[in-house]
Amino acid sequence: MKDIEESPRRIPIMAETDVLVVGGGPAGLSAALSAAREGVDTMLIERYGCFGGNITQSMIGTIGWYRCAETVEAGGIGLEFELRAKEMGGSINTFNKEILTTEMGKFLEHKGLLVNGEPTYEILDTEMFKYIADTLIQEANIVPLLHCTVVNVLKDADTIIGVITESKSGRQAIMAKRVIDATGDADVAYYAGAPYRKDPKSALMGVTLNFSCSGVDVKEFFTYYLKEVQEKPGLFAYLRQSRELFFMDELSCLLEPIEDIKKGIKLTNDINIKSFWTHYAEAGDINSFNGIHMSEIDCTDVWDLTKAEIEGRKRIIQAVKKLRKRTPGFKKARLKNIGSSLGTRESRKILGEYNLTEHDVKNQARFEDTIGICPEFIDGFGTIILPTTGRYFHVPYGIILPRKVENLLVAGRCVAGDKVSHAATRQMVCCAITGQGAGVAAAVSIKDNVTCRQVDISKVQKALKNQGVRIE
Ligand SMILES: Cc1cc2nc3c(=O)[nH]c(=O)nc-3n(C[C@H](O)[C@H](O)[C@H](O)COP(=O)(O)OP(=O)(O)OC[C@H]3O[C@@H](n4cnc5c(N)ncnc54)[C@H](O)[C@@H]3O)c2cc1C
């Protein structure tokens, strides 16, 4: 492809701050909150109109679904999201009580996902979470900036000193003593020239466009669903029980209706429909269908993003038509909403001072520079490991520290690690841990006047413990 030279120009500095966090997903929110709570000036910038990242853009409220009776919790801001949402009326009870009396109930009980008949977690109401995130940000005196995209960085030799942004206000700069990249795609690290890896499209995790329906006769639907479960207990019987390992498809609550939808749709190889609704309301809402998956999409390629959004919407319309026609309870159903953005799972990963491995996440790795613990929760590449046994690994500082660029930290799903470790670090609970670790480390490094690479890790650990993070 041809290229042209862009002329250099002077641009205004719109703000200066101690810590600048780019990207307002679970990692970015945790980073900004933890930095601000350490008493440094903090700014949080987000390209869309609300904070929350995948939670609010793609309707992913299941931050705590891994939690089993024996799970050792990470603590910190990830847990705070759930507790605060519950307190503010922004969470949803997870399971339909009738379902709990079926094979599925037995299965959930066995997995420790039910304790004394009660679910171990609540789902975040992803619309309410927009407001909850605003509230948390305001309480912590963070300077928020929405509708603003980071498009480049400013450096002094190897040190990042700010970013360049594009918005309706034009091209402007923000100067910062420390920058935390929580863009999910490591955009800032990439612009700063930090080494990274990105698998070929064919090896990347798929993207998903989530949708919801209203006007569902939930009772009729569940009567049908319960009958299915009772008549076909095999649905849950063939779980492969080796420690905590089983296949996602076998957990699929709505396998049968979805199989039915599939029959009527001409699927191409890269578009698959299979999965489940996350939650439902008595009022007739059935929400966040996590099943319009598309593969071979590079979410750092704007043409691929466009293709997947348009193709995904087409599949959703087809799926709703089929649901109305074939699935009991859906006769009068209407499409309620489609995620405001495609949900993405994997793109660039930085090469860090340390790169987490499959061995680490599956063997309870321990690190001197731990910034938190992550329950052994691995979801990706065809398998799921749930933390049913209290196993966990340490999350080392080295995976958020990019090579070659100073005073930049990276948090969330783009931290350093191999393919299987990504299936653990991409989980929101782990994104919150790397975010909180980054925020605290940035603040401590400013207070001690050292670079992020030179920061005294024992001071970071002490501050994290004070913030309620379990680090050992
Ligand atoms: C369909 C689906 C279902 C999932 N289900 C679960 C689940 O049940 N449980 C679980 O724990 N995880 C789940 N995940 C994974 C999880 O949602 C993500 O891995 C997690 O949200 C990543 O968090 P993050 O903060 O790193 O990135 P994101 O949540 O992607 O947030 C990044 C933020 O940065 C902003 N941004 C990006 N680039 C820029 C830029 N240049 N300038 C300014 N802002 C920018 C984005 O708009 C976004 O708000 C799911 C993912 C998908 C796609």
Describe this structure in words.
By secondary structure, the chain is of the alpha+beta class. The chain folds into 2 domains: 13-198 and 348-466, 3-Layer(bba) Sandwich (FAD/NAD(P)-binding domain), CATH 3.50.50; 202-338, no CATH class. 32% of the residues lie in helices and 24% in strands. The protein starts with 12 loop residues before the first strand and ends in a 6-residue tail after the last helix. 50% of the residues are buried. The model is unreliable at 233-274 (pLDDT under 50). It binds flavin-adenine dinucleotide. The site of flavin-adenine dinucleotide has 38 residues, from α1, β8 and α14. Flavin-adenine dinucleotide is lined by residues 22-28, 45-48, 53-54, 58, 60, 62-63, 65, 149-150, 182-185, 187, 208, 210, 290, 343-345, 412-413, 426-429, 431.
Can I get a quick summary?
By secondary structure, this protein is an alpha+beta fold. It has helices spanning 26-37, 54-57, 76-87, 103-111, 128-139, 187-191, 218-231, 234-237, 248-251, 255-263, 302-326, 358-362, 419-425, 428-447, 457-466, and strands spanning 13-22, 42-45, 91-92, 114-115, 118-119, 123-124, 143-145, 148-156, 159-167, 170-181, 196-197, 207-208, 211-214, 245-246, 271-281, 285-294, 334-338, 349-350, 370-375, 378-380, 383-385, 392-396, 408-410.
